[in-house]
Specification:
The structure is a single chain. By secondary structure, the protein is mainly α. The chain contains eight helices and no strands. It has helices spanning 2-8, 12-18, 22-46, 50-67, 71-83, 85-111, 121-138, 147-162. Helix 3 (22-46) packs antiparallel against helix 4, helix 4 (50-67) packs antiparallel against helix 8 and helix 5 (71-83) packs across helix 7.
């Protein structure tokens, strides 16, 4: 609740004048986040360079969260969703939409040969989402870890993670 009040720049009492409960506040946050996610994810659906579009979208999300002071709110919502089934249900709707958009983009990238054809797109989607969440939650503890500073490394890591393996190269996962 403290993170929500800080993000809204309001006291708990003032915030509860507009919302009847903590769940109502979180529902409003989730609705706003859902619209923001849709705006960001629309870019992935139309871009031909799918990996670059995924990375661009991830960096844009990281920038928005860090520039609006939403890192603590992100961490708090993730924690609260693990404790409170009602909050989890509210945010699960958002996560399903994000997961589907990323998974569909990865499947298209596999179909056009842009990424490794043997990657499990469901697990890879989870890894990509966890990277984004982890970076956002970690950034306040690393003052020099800004979106501009991490962007080159993030691009490199994601490209390396997704790239197709040449037929003659050893596949480190041992997958066929």
């Amino acid at each position: 609740m403290h993170a929500i009040c800080a993000a809204a720049d309001m006291s708990p009492g003032a915030l509860y004048r507009y919302f009847p409960s903590k769940e109502a506040i979180i529902e409003a946050i989730a609705a706003e986040e859902r619209e923001n996610n849709r705006r960001l994810l629309a870019y992935i659906a139309v871009e031909k360079g799918i990996v670059e579009a995924l990375i661009d979208t991830g960096i844009a999300w990281i920038r928005e969260v860090t520039q609006t002071g939403g890192t603590a709110l992100c961490a708090e919502v993730l924690a609260e969703a693990q404790r409170n089934p009602r909050i989890r249900d509210i945010f699960e709707k958002n996560l399903v939409e994000v997961r589907e958009a990323i998974r569909d983009a990865l499947a298209r990238a596999q179909a056009n040969g842009e990424i490794d054809p043997v990657l499990d797109v469901n697990i890879t989607t989870t890894f990509l989402m966890a990277m984004g969440d982890g970076l956002v939650v970690r950034m306040p503890f690393e003052p020099d870890m800004t979106p501009d500073r991490i962007e080159p490394a993030l691009r490199d890591i994601v490209h390396r993670m997704l790239r197709p393996w040449p037929a003659a190269a050893p596949n480190p996962s041992g997958r066929e």
